[in-house]
Amino acid sequence: GGANSAGQAAVYFSGYARQVFLVVRAGSLHVGMSSYLVDQLGELGNVVVRTRTEVAEAVGDEHLEAVVLRSLDSGETEELGAASMFVFIGAEPHTDWLSGAVARDERGFVLTGTDAGGRVRTPAGVERDRYLLESSVPGVFAVGDVRARSVKRVASAVGEGSIAVQFIHEYLAL
């Protein structure tokens, strides 16, 4: 659904942009958004809500020039000029496919570091501390929003990815 974070961002950006498109996969904003926020968005003349729609493509060479929207009902697409795009996809980790493979918390986020367990033994038999971003399976790392207790920000996820690469090099060197 639209969710409150996306709605709040649309309200904020409406104060600066000529037009804001709020693209929502759900059939209604009421699916995941507080009523007060739905009402507030409805009062803004420069916010256009597109339900049952998804972003199919971002278009541009040096910078974003347009987005292509696709109707989930008809499959029809429409290209809209755009100078920027912000993505709010929700807070569900969608890790059911990992069930039984790596340890997850009660909400499905992947446990890493000491949350994933204590010391580990490498294939070469060396015992070591679990790396900060390492899951319950030695050599399997999780970064970004899917990780339990992560900051849930793009910049943090990028940084964690960079750190994970270093841990992977260390893991492979053992």
Poorly predicted regions: none
Give the spatial strand order of the biggest sheet.
3-4-5
In angstroms, what separates the terminal alpha carbons?
45 Å
Strand content: 15-25%
Q: Which structural class should the secondary elements be placed in?
A: alpha+beta
The major beta sheet can be summarized as: 3 strands, antiparallel
Summarize the amount of helix as a percent range.
Answer: 10-25%
Any idea what the radius of gyration is? 21 Å
The sequence of SSEs as H and E is HEHEEEEEEH
Q: In one word, what is the shape?
A: elongated
What is the number of E strands?
7
Mean pLDDT: 91
**What is the number of helices?**
3
Describe the 3D structure.
Helix content is 23%, strand content 17%. The protein is built from three helices and seven strands, in the order αβαββββββα. It has a three-stranded antiparallel beta sheet, with no helix packed on it. Strands 1-2 form a two-stranded parallel sheet. Strands 6-7 form a two-stranded antiparallel sheet. Helix 1 (3-14) packs parallel to helix 2 (35-42). The protein is elongated and about 65 Å long. It starts with a helix and ends with a helix.
Q: Tags for this entry?
A:
alpha+beta, 17% strand, two-stranded parallel ribbon, three-stranded antiparallel β-sheet, elongated, 7 strands, 174 residues
Helices and strands in order, then pairings?
Layout: H1 3-14, E1 20-23, H2 35-42, E2 47-50, E3 53-59, E4 66-71, E5 77-81, E6 120-121, E7 127-128, H3 154-173
Parallel strand pairs: 1-2
Antiparallel strand pairs: 3-4, 4-5, 6-7
